[in-house]
Amino acid sequence: MSTYQGPITDDHFHLRRDGRCLAAAEDFARAGGTDLVLVHCPDFAAPPTDEAGHKAAYADTVAMAEEVRASVGLGVRVVLGPHPAAFAHQFEAWTVEGETGRSRAIESYTSSIDAAVSFIEEGQAHAVGEVGRPHWPVSEDIWDLSNELLAWTMRRAGREGFALQLHVEGEQASTYPELAAMADREGCPRDRIVRHYAPPDVSAASTHGLIPSVLCGKGSLPVLLDTMADARQGFMLETDHMDDPGRPGAVLGPKTVPKRTRQLSEAGVDDEVLYRAHVDLPERLYGPSIRA
Ligand SMILES: [Zn+2]
Predict the structure, then answer these.
(1) Is residue 204 part of a domain?
(2) Which of 136, 118, 10, 13 lies closest to 55, judged by CA?
(3) Residues lining ligand 1 (ion), CB within 5 A?
């Protein structure tokens, strides 16, 4: 029997002006959701190239968060950063121009982090993300550059104290330990790094001290249930809802986290464990959720 009556947070959710936007947030609220972590959705076709462009794009995500708070009544935290898919394509397009293209790509990336951090400093954003590495085959050059920029971002996160949401390649066993080693090298505490789109194995042996934000499709529950007792750092749940008019309901629909939370509760998971996933851990990572 379901007992959990506490808050419900989706740790990775996108909204688009040309998508369902507030209606998607309303679906989440109606299903029992209380808090969204709204992650900036880039214009994949034409991401900004300079700091002013990045600031303008981020300002619109901050404005959407405000609209969700005011008209849907949810708590919303905001995560801003250069999406690896948008930026890797920019790198690819520019680095064929050689050294100038390469420094232009680096400049665009670093200025997008600068812009994101300025929103955090003003209290309008709560973490940097999603950043990471391309999750499709790329040239060695692009791979190396992506790793270099990721390392630089971790170094800043460690120094400046913000949390990071990472989007990295799929199910390789090497991914978590590699990221953990990189974080250690760069002086970023492992428990300030959230792995978004995480596989459901949340055991500490698998996550190496990083925080898994589990993409909670139907098939994820058995493994999550099996491993959560060994999740020393805890875990969060997410849909990676894209609000993409061309792919409605992708990656997972807006009602999914409330629904899985109910199922976990019905399967006998303690309220305390769910409260930690939906309240304590997001609070420690991002600070308090902001309401209208
Ligand atoms: Zn995403």
Answers:
(1) yes
(2) 118
(3) 240
CB atoms within 10 A of CB 186: 17
Is 132 inside any structural domain? yes
- Domain residue limits at 250: 9-284
| CA of 258 relative to ligand 1 center, distance in Å | 18
Distance, CA 1 to ligand 1 centroid (Å)? 32
Rounded to 5°, the CA angle 178-279-266 comes to 95
> Tokens 């899985």 — which residue?
260
Note the pLDDT of residue 42. Answer: 87
Best CA proximity match to 11, nearest among 136, 154, 129: 129
Ligand 1 midpoint to CA 110 (Å): 20
Give the SS3 label for residue 136: coil
98 Cα to the center of ligand 1, angstroms:
30
Interval between CA 112 and ligand 1 midpoint (Å): 17
Burial of 66 (0-12, 13-18, 19+ CB in 10 A): middle
Helices (H) and strands (E) in the chain, counts: 11, 8
pLDDT(197) > 90: yes
Would 125 be classed as within a structural domain? yes
Whether residue 290 lies inside any domain: the answer is no
Taking the centre of ligand 1 as the mean of its atom positions, its distance from the CA of residue 85, in whole angstroms, is 10
Q: Please say whether the beta carbons of 65 and 284 come within 8 A.
A: no
Whether pLDDT at 162 is above 90:
yes
CATH number of the structural domain spanning residue 158: 3.20.20.140
Mean pLDDT over 17-29 rounds to 97
- pTM (2 decimals)? 0.96
Residue spans of alpha helices (H) in 132-280: 140-160, 175-186, 204-207, 221-227, 256-266, 271-275
Cis amide leading into 160 (omega within 30): no
pLDDT tens, position by position, 39-60: 999 888 888 888 999 999 999 9
